[in-house]
Queue: 4 jobs
Job 1
Amino acid sequence: MTLSRNKKIAYSLLVAITVITALALAYLLTFDWNRARPWLNARASEALNRPFTIAGDLTLTWKKPASALSEKDPEWYPQLSWPFLVAHDIRIGNPANMVNVESREKPAAAHSGPKSMASIERLTFTLNPLALLQKKIVVPLLYLKTPTIELQRNANGENNWTFNSTDEASSWKLDLQRIAFAKGSIHLVDAIKKADIRADIDTISNDPVYGVVWQLAGKLKGETVSGNGKAGAVLSLTNQTTPYPLEAFIQAGQSVISITGTLTRPTDLAAIDMRLAFSGVSMRQLYAITGIYLPETPPFATEGRLSGSLGRGRQHWIYEGFRGRIGSSDLSGN
């Protein structure tokens, strides 16, 4: 029994496609991705308009995701292997026109030159392979190990955290859904706000609410600032309803503020709901923290519920159910 000519052609094409797919997968699995680092560094530096370097190893493997992304995904979706990328020793530099801002806590000799804006010991993420067919870069979880961020702004208003945007609309869309990190630090030196503040972040375990703990120290508008607090372990950038827990205690000079509550869609500060307590020798001294000019008052203390919604060009705040004292006078209300 012989196959017809059409069946032979179809069978040959099927074999060819299978072989090509197997060879492509074998190539991807065995390819040394460190050879691609110069090209990736050049393209990223060009896009960001500042130096970008992957100085350590770059590897790619294939793993199955933990589960489907949503109820709309088919049952077989989690069985598909996804590319799993790991990059070590990543550095993001400052823009060329950025002048390094001198720290007010350290002598000038300690600053031999401009620091990089950010460095990351290890970056890990997976990509949804099918979304690439629709020109979507879907990253379910981006994990950063020991990120160090140096934010600077000089007296002319130039800063290193603003990235140049292009007027050309890209046909590709980035969908970064969640961010998690282990340890890290953020250092802000702002000549306009007269700020030199450092926050050190570490992870905590066996806590049902919080995943990270942080410590704060520095100067703000001439006042010594210190503080500590906790926050959630994973920051969701796409879920509009998941509250992000936050707890903080901040002292600036003789003024103290403590908050416990949640943020919804924290990237936009869309909604805030927390218990707020603050005290000090005079409300005027709260300017260092709030940036709002308040009158001189006797010593005060108050506690209540702060809620608010922050939209584009519009903010709405409510401080309700508060009780407190200013001097010998009792306060309460909304």
Note: The CA atoms of residues 208 and 260 lie 15 Å apart.
Job 2
Amino acid sequence: MKIILTLVFLLGMATFSFAAQGVINHPSPYDVTTTADRLENLLQKKGMTLFNRIAHSAAAKKVGVDIRPTELLIFGNPKVGSPLMQCSQGIAIDLPQKALIWEDESGKTFL
């Protein structure tokens, strides 16, 4: 129980820290699909569960809307997240984790 409470505290502090900085965009040398593929492989190697991968640009195209390549990966680890939610159910608003991979106006990819 002490470990779980420590994790809840640390996650809360990390959330506060990131909230002060806002969203962090990291450039990728690869295109959107390759970046998303590489991230998906890395997450799986680290034992994370990929809950969903949403190709926003492909969905937009189906309804006649053109947007630059954009993909969202939703992932987590129920072995870690579930005990955290057991201690503090409100933390579920931040779980599972998400990563957005997108292309800007100049064709540069960001994660």
Note: The chain has a mean pLDDT of 86.
Job 3
Amino acid sequence: MTTYQFVGLQQAVYRLINDYKTVNDDRVLAVTRADVFDVLLGLLPAEDERVKTFLQALLQRDLTRQRAEKLFDTLTPFVEPFPTFSEKQLQKFLPKVKKLKQPAPLENPYTTSYLAWDDTGIQRTYLVVPTDKGYLGLMGDVEPQVVHGLCAICHEFGNVSLFTSTVKGNAQGNYTKKGNYICRDHEACNAQLATLDHLEKFVAHVRPQK
């Protein structure tokens, strides 16, 4: 199970918990619960005892987010965590950066689909994102102004800032700036990322393929 699939499962369970609190129609709840079961069983083996325990917990109307979070911990062995990169590897991803500030250790590699960290001293953000050809390093200038808007990566509304990269234009020696708004809180952005579709579009925009 990928990290973004794990996030999608979490989101489905949290929707079910919210319905338990707000919906009185058993038929509606049965549909929501069946959707969660389909997501879970589409990712994990039904015969595994940890999965069986999780399914049983989903049947309980008094299930809380706190209890669900503990249950999610039992499923992390099924998740392929985001890798830990060495300083040398990060420098290889971002070869044009002479003095690359290193990122802090990941707080939760099981809900991290892309790596991002800031160098606030020079108002720059670095990203390492997965692609079909391996991991790709990106860097861009980030406006200090924070606004409420739609993040181009997770496609959720929140506190965002403009990320701008400089890329080569069509003519030799010609450069152009490409940008979009992204979450200021990279961890929160990852925790909302249930698909890589928008991340891939963001990468294609700020680093056009020639």
Note: The mean pLDDT is 91.
Job 4
Amino acid sequence: MGELGMSDVMLLPGEYFVGGRQFRIRTLLGSCVSITLWHPDARVGAMSHYLLARHSAREALLNARYGEDALELMLAELALLGVHGRDCHAKVFGGGQMFPGLGKGETVGHKNGEAARKMLKKHAITLVSESLYGSGHRQIVFNVRTGDVWSRQVDPGVAVLACKPEKA
């Protein structure tokens, strides 16, 4: 249990979580992207940590490593809780360039971020905030009780000993 009786959940790459107001969801993103969905009345939220926007070849089962699938999985679990995705507020984070100066053109992180915007628009989910791109990784903390998401971006090569999140 974390502070104020909240339970902390740590998402690894390719995972997602859906839960109520007693949860605080955390992750660490590089080029990956997290979509958070929050229903202000029900105080229910969901968060993904996906590696790629979509499959190169369609798999039989949904896989949260892919943005399209992660969003479908979150929306299905929210529906089981009586929450419709279009009634949620969305926030998007990540898509960082982990090795600035290497490679040219559109990065995996940029593709992931643009895909998140398109997926939310397709599902008529309002995007209320985002923190995308740039260099380095992000530490993300989503408080399902309040809907607040804190994001702290750290440049590549900088060691982080302590984190005081910045509210997004």
Note: The CA atoms of residues 105 and 111 lie 11 Å apart.
